[in-house]
Design goal:
By secondary structure, the chain is of the alpha+beta class. It is about 30% helix and about 20% strand. It has one domain: DD-peptidase/beta-lactamase superfamily (Beta-lactamase, 3-Layer(aba) Sandwich), CATH 3.40.710. It has a six-stranded antiparallel beta sheet, with helices on both faces. Strands 4-6-7 form a three-stranded antiparallel beta sheet, covered by helices on one side. It has a three-stranded mixed beta sheet with strand order 11-10-16, with no helix packed on it. α4 (about 85-100) runs antiparallel to α5, α4 crosses α6 (about 145-155) and α5 (about 135-145) packs parallel to α10 (about 275-285). The longest helix has 22 residues, at about 370-390.
Length: about 425
């Protein structure tokens, strides 16, 4: 009876997942057996999809309508590097709130160690100045999803402010409590002393170490797999517990990106307090390719242009730009994107996650990213692109706000390219 009750409860929970007929019809049109197999076993693969249709009026004002497939907060996915998106927004917002003369996103910053497990940071060989900055962290976080860049933004904003700020904005389902480094819960509550320097190397502002005393609601359980390898590479024969890990509902992730690209489309409460220069900076590095970027100078044989563009990973279309943030870990692949085709004058948003872990063992590095996850997301992206390309619009969008001047690499720059990154 207990087993039957548990199965009934699970069925009831999964029955609450959102699915819309239009998106279901688009997905059914994809003539690929792997794609359809993943959809058929949508709960095994923990597939969640949000297609955001964008229409403009005669004044070019956009309106948004979300179409769902199997979405709902009861189906946990590990957000991985998608948490870098809110951290970039919060970092820029905090800089603006500080109102400290000489301190902005380009100001050199130094990280001291103030608690066990913390790491100092005084130099950054990937930057033009050789010094770290919030701007450089954001570049690295967006271009190839650098993990240390995320850690440094987490330490700058602080665990308490991260979560309080997001919840006050209405993103109540988001929980960001961990850095991407081996730290326990108590260590993650502490953040470093941070110093901003002027051009002469003198400290112009010091941020004291911080500690988060707030409690979190961990009542909703989140489990993945049937087993996992622990820190000693020993198999633990039970699901891996993600209850106290980072968490972003897929709908919140979609709304975060929408709030940045189209701030006036969301309630004022849900916007981030950013300056025009902040928006321009974010737009550039959400969409710029590694091959266009001189600092950091990534090896484009490894970090190719579509490296973090999952919906267009197998084919780059010259007229298309993708403004996005992707993440991958523990078998979960996730991407939140705004796609623009300047030639055909179309635009849409697409947000999706898929879980590929056939043996159901986590931490064994045996995930079907290449054989299932990436092909599925690519086919999904192309299906939505094809649909949006063909659908009729009353007014064609003016997309000049997203036509950007991107950087260019100097062909005579013979610096060694970066090949190894923790991401």
């Amino acid at each position: 009876m207990l087993i039957l009750g548990a199965l009934f409860l699970q069925t009831q929970v999964l029955a609450q997942m959102k699915t819309d007929g239009l998106l279901q019809k688009i997905l059914a049109s994809v003539g690929d057996s792997l794609f359809q197999q993943v959809l058929l076993q949508k709960n095994k693969y923990r597939v969640q999809i949000i297609y955001t249709r964008i229409d403009r009026d005669s004044r070019n004002k956009p309106s948004f309508k979300n179409f769902h497939f199997n979405t709902g907060d009861s189906l946990y996915y590990y957000p991985a590097s998608t948490v870098k998106l809110p951290l970039a927004l919060l970092s820029l917002e905090k800089l603006n709130r500080m109102h400290t003369p000489g301190v902005d996103r380009f100001t050199a910053v130094q990280y001291d160690s103030s608690y066990p497990g913390q790491k100092t940071l005084y130099r950054d060989s990937t930057s033009a100045t050789g010094l770290p900055s919030i701007a450089q962290f954001i570049r690295k976080a967006f271009l190839i999803s650098d993990n240390d860049a995320y850690n440094r933004m987490y330490e700058f904003v602080g665990q308490q402010e991260i979560n309080r700020n997001l919840h006050e904005k209405g993103y109540s389902g988001i929980r960001i409590v961990r850095q991407f480094m081996p730290m326990n819960e108590e260590e993650n509550r502490h953040t470093n002393q941070i110093r901003f320097l002027n051009a002469d190397g003198k400290t112009i502002f010091t941020q004291a170490p911080a500690y988060n005393k707030d409690s979190f609601d961990f009542s909703r359980k989140a489990m993945l797999g049937k087993g996992y390898l622990n820190g000693k590479d020993s198999l633990v024969d039970e699901p891996m517990n993600f209850t106290r890990h980072n968490h972003i509902p897929l709908e919140d992730l979609q709304l975060l990106l929408q709030s940045v690209l189209f701030p006036f489309s969301v309630p004022e409460k849900q916007r981030f307090k950013l300056k025009p220069g902040d928006y321009a900076f974010l737009y550039r590095y959400l969409s710029q390719f590694p091959s266009e970027t001189p600092y950091p100078k990534y090896d484009t044989g490894i970090f190719y242009d579509s490296y973090v563009k999952f919906f267009f990973r197998e084919q780059r279309k010259p007229s298309v730009r993708i403004f996005n943030k992707a993440g991958w870990a523990y078998g979960c692949l996730t991407d939140v994107s705004y796609v623009v085709d300047f030639k055909n004058r179309i635009e849409f948003m697409l947000t999706a996650t898929v879980y590929t872990n056939e043996d159901e063992i986590l931490n064994d590095d045996k995930y079907e990213y290449e054989t299932v996850g990436f092909p599925f997301l690519y086919l999904l992206g192309q299906a939505i692109y094809k649909y949006d390309l063909q659908r009729k619009r009353k007014f064609s969008p003016d997309l000049k706000a997203f036509r950007l001047n991107y950087e260019h690499r100097d062909p005579s720059d013979h610096r060694t390219s970066i090949q190894n990154v923790d991401n």
